[in-house]
Amino acid sequence: MVLEQDRNTARQTTNKRPLYNEQEEDMVESDDSGAAPSNTSKENTDPARRKKGKVKGTGPRAKLSYKCLGFWREDHSQPLFGVSVNTHLGPGADTTSGEQPVVFATVGFNRVTIYQCEEDGVRLLQCYADPDSEENFYTCAWSYDSDTNKPLLAAAGARGIVRLFSPANMTCIRHFVGHGNAINEVKFHPRDPNLLLSVSKDHALRLWNVKTEHNIAIFGGVEGHRDEVLSADFNIAGTKIISCGMDHSLKVWRFDTDNIKEAIELSYTHDTVITKKAFPTELCHFPDFSTRDIHRNYVDCCRWFGDFVLSKSCENSIVCWKPGTLENDGTVEKGSENKTTVIHKLEFKDCEIWFVRFSLDTSEKVLALGNQTGKTYVWDLDVADPGSIRHSILSHPKCTTAVRQTSLSRDGQVLISVCDDGTIWRWDRTN
Question: How far apart are alpha carbons 184 and 17 in whole angstroms?
């Protein structure tokens, strides 16, 4: 049964994410501009009843075009809060095509499910059901074993426990306990596949070594977040962290300090059995930069975009901004500690609920975000001037509930989105 909740009460902070379910047949727009035909969904095989997935462009310069390849509903019919494509799978594995298939994971309820994209749809590979029916997974992230190169999948949620899965062994190989409340997002370091960052309702971020199981560092405390941390991201060099949360703030934490580097190095060699001492977790109380000037509500998603930051709240816009002034090189100068420079805003509609997250492809050329009425906005960021950024709107008559998260394949050709009614949607780029 799909959970329904009143729109006004659903925003209140509880131990569950806000749930929205608006399955009204009359709400679907009938705009046929730029319509792209979709293959039939796995739930609707009657040729007479097939519908079209629509791609609505914004003028003649709209570049991106996608077609709906189908949708699939998980049997629990609970909201799916997270999806992540394994972008570590690169070219060269499949000798026939030269590329590995697109593999992605979804999380929701007490399930972590792994799928593979086929030519005509998706195929279920594995499904993990947590033994605790009270668990509700909110987030997942992919990495790989640095020794065997086999994929690893981390997932976490309401219970505040990070679970690490090895799809090759079809088992949960480790779990990490430390957070005092729900975990809202997990992220792996871009350079070291063993470093995992988790952000929590307990107001803190924690850094883990998934190989040795040590809690390397905790970011929070004196000048940390004052409410739930909802999202975080590493920059591409792995030297900085951006975090955001319910306190309306965005904070930049340095990841290249001597203390952090030494703690990471120690995490590979420290043996609690031999030393009979717990790992000396590094406490980071002071961010390098902090601001509350960008948003006026919960900040539920943030990503690095080069030296810029992309962040969103419940205000129907994604803001591209930079700490400090436009001229600086990414370092925060004294005297400009709280200055911010807004570069551009990407506007959209009907996304006034929180815990809706956007995604970028690996090359940072495509950005995708769903809204609470089932539409997905896709922006082409590969432009010389921010003013010429255009978006397409992906819509389907049967997609009418909130799209909680999107994830793009390594090359941006496949877009996967997950919804509050437990459905998974696949969109393939056509140009």
Answer: 9
